[in-house]
Write a structure and sequence with these properties.
Bound molecules: pyridoxal-5'-phosphate
Shape: globular
CATH superfamily: Alanine racemase
Strand content: 15-25%
Largest sheet: 8 strands, parallel
CATH topology: TIM Barrel
Oligomer: single chain
Structural class: alpha/beta
Number of domains: 1
Amino acid sequence: MKELLFNNNYTCVAVSKTKPTTDIKKIYNLGHKDFGENKVQELEIKYKNLPKDINWHMIGHLQTNKVKKIVPFITLIHSVDSIKLLKVINKESKKINKITNCLIQVNISNEDSKYGFNFEELNSLDIEFLKNFENIKIKGLMGMASYSSNEKNIQKEFNLLNRQYINLKKLMESFDTLSMGMSNDYKLALKEGSNMIRVGSKIFGERNYH
Ligand SMILES: *Cc1c(COP(=O)(O)O)cnc(C)c1O
């Protein structure tokens, strides 16, 4: 567990969605500071009830009308999936004089159920336009591999995302983060250049959805 959490080569975001604050506190007490949630309401409650030096990561789909609730305290929004969302994050950040760190979510598996820009959309983004958001720092890309047990496929998807990341990094000085890899595929993701993994069940145990 400690090997997974503390590592010089990558940041491990402990994904605590659906888990109680007591579970988070246990991992926090080991000295771990990065936690991820996918719902705004749950994130707000946990932020209020846990130590203020936790780095909170938003990893789930974010509705524009909820942006203002998390901007004051969020460390990194991994799930920017539209230009409209970027505009709202910029506007709300400006209001409180903050610069918000964001990743662009890429739909690497081409599953319709997944949010994010596909490769074509990603490549047609106007870089100068992206750089012009005064209150946003775009730090990199986030992606999720197909829900599949075909390791070759998963690795290929991660490899493609890493190539996009490397290409964009040449144009975006602010790029330093490639968020890819979850409990079942983080080892493949790290092989393919990830430097931020988002691990839930491997740390907290399986989730029960009621
Ligand atoms: C839930 C979730 C994770 C963690 O999933 P595990 O399989 O439990 O590690 C990572 N990333 C995102 C976007 C998630 O929603």
